[in-house]
Write a structure and sequence with these properties.
Blueprint (H helix, E strand, L loop, with lengths): L2 H12 L23 H8 L10 E5 L5 H8 L4 E6 L2 H13 L5 E5 L12 E7 L8 H9 L2 E12 L5 H12 L7 H10 L6 H5 L8 H8 L9 H10 L3 E5 L7 H4 L4 H6 L3 H12 L4 E7 L17 E4 L3 E3 L5 E3 L2 E3 L3 H8 L7 H5 L9 H17 L3 E4 L1
Parallel strand pairs: 1-2, 1-4, 2-3, 4-5
Antiparallel strand pairs: 5-7, 6-7, 8-12, 9-10, 10-11
Helix pairs in contact: 7-9
Length: 390
């Protein structure tokens, strides 16, 4: 291993990350937020439809429990976890024994050398890992080479905009000579920063800074890269992969978050330009979670006449509340009665055309119904409420 990779391995051995659960049954309530879980998010990975039983899954950089969680919730799948840190793998081994996860294999090693396993996979997961490599492109290429034809890859890397303040402080702390043993000093410095510092936008949403492990991982990491949307797309394509889509559309399309004249102007742009503009307008993407596949295999819905054949399915992280609001993550929407009607029919079994043939819409001319169905499900897809099978 190179010097940087050795430093990263040492950090995650001394500060195992993320803080692990002692019992995987406790992860059931958080499962809808685990976007890489194929049992819940199969249509995100394979919009064209694919059975998610019996998959061979690689979790590259599995941390303290990610591979175990996927093995626990997807018992028919065979999961391989690889990580640099023996401490992280030790907790995986504890969880494997406790929950009798015979479908979980563990290996200590470097992502660059994953080909040495001599295995290929239907599904590759790597979240929060590639941006810590000396050359993320080399790591991504190594993962690509393990992905079978027709497979899917779920990745998460850091986003550049919201983390602007993080990189300012990383540079300052590095110049001070601070190391991972100085987490208490860093915490004290964070509390003393002026209110106008760029870091405060990040601190408001950072989920893991209440303990030293999170402070070390965020501010004292020896290697850390981040991407804006254009840079991420170029990185994926440069590795010989094809971008398919985001785990959370609402962060990238203007329908849900942008207000004022920017909505109409941005909607007129091609999708990739919309994503780039929204990212810079909102600065909410501290990470980018997305799916990519081999060239020619990516599938994204179209909303022209072909949109009538799409099959909508309410996402597991979207809920109709008791007072008929649509709750997606922490966001609440007030759908119209007509929108509620089509949402309730989004079971994945019927196409948009079949949904709009429902007796509830019989009073409207067919052309009106079809146009309404396409536009409504396009909006619901872009705010992250539904999957659309293609």
């Amino acid at each position: 291993m190179d010097e940087i990779t050795n430093k990263v391995a040492r950090q995650y051995t001394e500060y195992a990350y993320p803080p692990p659960p002692d019992d995987l049954t406790a992860t059931a309530s958080m499962r809808p937020g685990i976007y890489c879980d194929p049992g819940l998010y199969g249509p995100l990975l394979w919009p064209e439809g694919r059975a998610v039983e019996g998959l061979d899954i690689l979790v590259a950089g599995c941390g303290t429990f990610q591979a175990a969680v996927l093995a626990f919730h997807n018992p028919t799948c065979r999961v391989v976890g690889i990580d640099l840190s023996p401490a992280s793998l030790g907790h995986h081994a504890y969880l494997r024994e406790k929950h009798e996860l015979s479908n979980l294999e563990l290996f200590q090693g470097d992502i660059h050398e994953v080909g040495g396993l001599g295995r290929s996979f239907d599904y590759v997961v790597s979240t929060g890992v590639l941006h810590h490599l000396p050359d993320p492109s080399v790591g991504l290429a190594a993962l690509r080479d393990t992905l079978r034809p027709g497979g899917a890859m779920f990745l998460m890397v850091y986003g550049a905009t919201l983390r602007t303040g993080v990189y300012m402080l990383q540079d300052a702390f590095r110049r001070m000579g601070l190391t991972m043993d100085d987490a208490p000093k860093v915490r004290a410095m964070l509390e003393a920063l002026p209110s106008h510092h760029f870091i405060h936008a990040y601190l408001k949403v950072a989920p893991d800074l209440g303990h030293d492990v999170g402070v070390v991982d965020t501010f004292l990491h020896p290697q850390d890269a981040a991407y804006d949307v254009p840079g991420l797309l170029a990185w994926v394509r440069g590795a010989g992969l094809e971008f398919q889509g985001w785990a959370q559309n609402h962060i990238y399309y203007p329908q849900s978050l942008v207000r004022g004249p920017a909505v109409e102007i941005t909607q007129a742009l091609p999708d990739e330009e919309q994503w780039a503009v929204v990212e810079k307008l909102l600065c909410v993407a501290g990470t980018h979670s997305f799916v990519c596949r081999h060239p020619g295999e990516a599938r994204r819905p179209g909303f022209g006449a072909e949109g009538l054949s799409l099959r909508p399915l309410l996402r597991p992280d979207a809920v109709i509340t008791a007072n008929n609001q649509l709750e997606i993550g922490k966001a609440l929407y007030d759908p119209t009665q007509a929108e509620l009607a089509v949402i309730r029919l989004a079971t994945g079994a019927a196409t948009i055309a079949e949904i709009m043939d429902d007796p509830a819409f019989a009073a409207f001319p067919a052309e009106q119904r079809e146009a309404y169905g396409r536009s409504t499900f396009e909006r619901l897809w872009k705010i992250g409420a539904v999957f659309l099978g293609v």
